[in-house]
Amino acid sequence: MTDFLAKIERLFAPIEGWGEFRPGSRHAAVAFILYREDGRWQVPFVRRRADLRDHPGQVALPGGGVKAGESAWDAARREVTEEIGVPAEKLVPLGAGELIYTSVSNFSVVPFVAHIPEPVPPFVYDKESWTVCSRFRSTGCSTTARGESQPPRGDSGSLRTRRASCGA
After folding, report:
1. Where are the alpha helices (DSSP H) in 38-71?
2. By the 8 A CB rule, do 12 and 96 touch?
3. Cα–chain center distance at 8
4. May I ask the CATH class of domain 26-163?
5. What SS3 class is residue 99?
6. What is the pLDDT of residues 43-69, one digit of tens each?
7. Which residues contact 146 (CB under 8 A, 6 or more apart)?
8. For a Cys staple, 77 with which of 18, 88, 120, 129, CB 3.0–4.6 Å?
9. CA 103, 106, 112: angle at the middle one, nearest 5?
10. Secondary structure letter of residue 43 according to DSSP
């Protein structure tokens, strides 16, 4: 594991130590996945089709509902496989973030952070639900004396998006 991934891992709770879902809420899990391509860190995202009833056009991390008897981490891994075609066993867990509750949909969502070691398999998105698989790549950032992240000079932000060749 690189120093960067080790630092990321220290920022989050252990995979099974994230806490509990909000009582009475719908349970979900998502995965923020880091991988290297062309010497830069990348993160895949998906966009829901505009004609879907639930969340049309939404850009999201791979993830979804937690099934009865399934752990949140197992749900996130399953959803990554279903949505972008990455085999669950390729994901190396780095940790779990704080639970996010969305009152509009009554979802409690646990965000996980994972890494895909090289070689990274091609992404193949689920065309029934998604229109495109995109990725954001890091262009680097620096830290000010107050600890605020700043984009590199001449850059409008620390993340850039580009359409990935996510397969057919």
Report:
1. none
2. yes
3. 14
4. alpha beta
5. coil
6. 998 888 889 887 888 889 999 999 999
7. none
8. 88
9. 95
10. E
